[in-house]
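Exercise 7.
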Amino acid sequence: MNKPKIVWLNFSVFLITFLVAAIAVPYRAITHGFDTTELVVALCCFIYCGMSITAGYHRLWSHKTYQAHASLRFIFALGGAFALQNSILHWASDHRVHHKHVDNNDKDPYSAKKGFWYSHIGWMLREYQAHRYANYDNTRDLQKDPIVMWQHKNYLLLTILMNFGVPILFGLWHGDIISSLLLVGFLRLVLSHHTTFFINSLAHIWGKQTYTERNTARDNGFLAFLTFGEGYHNYHHIFENDYRNGIRWWQFDPTKWLIKGCEFLKLTSKLRTYPDDKIEKARLAMVLKRSQKKLLSHPNAEQMREKLQQEYDLLIARINDYYDVRKKLLASRRDKLIADVESSELAAQYQEFKQHLAEQQQHFQRLLTQLA
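Solution. The predicted structure, written as tokens, is:
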């Protein structure tokens, strides 16, 4: 079977940048050294590139999880060119196909089921889906954004200006062009590439399937640290239109914090989230499924399975009651339908259901502990 043609431009870029970063950067560090300013600027550029991909390419343009002011979109467009991961239009088109056909080896551009190498970088080295390369029918909404189309039409020029212009200008100002090109140019680019690529590869094979087993995506806190919050990938693949990936307060998701912070500056708006009860039900469904599997070897499997199902059904009922009354309470506050909602019957009912839910959660957790 003949393999698709090699994309020599991509092959050359990935190989040359990697070799320079792996050989020239350590050699320069040993023979010349890098100062603190150079390291800090390289880190800042790495963060800028990464956040332009996560907050811009991914959550803004690919999934429309929020709206952004033109100035912020322009900043992200430049950062995306700096990250050298193709134009917004092309990147978003690929990513939407990935979500629509995740793990389908014939349609998913970077299907994890074709192996780590393929999903990480191999899919870009050969013309595996050349018939799609110029088909942007799934991004017609983005084609109405003048910044997206400006970047797409001028992408090559912008990548040259950003990837050579920024390091050279900094090098001229700081007095060391070679170190700047190596750190801010090559090393930063290689790190930007491969940390982003980890989401297509590692995040589909390493971590927990917290919310669904319908696809290979995993939640991984370590990858979230490397990718500005994108590592909570199992959550993202079931709730893709949420502007958050890490939904817990303790989960590392600086992209979420950036988007939310910009809302206070009037730079972002209409931040989209999923209902808490829907998220919790998805998590509990996975807990139930795993617990049922553990019971297969239990001596009283059938009896324990029935008890587990009963506790689960009661917990879901409590969740429905709690979130239903909470919605009514919030609506009452918003619409001012009750004069003093804090002392109203609805507020009392809310506290009662909240207590019932907490008690049922404790019952369910105790049962799970017994099964462990």
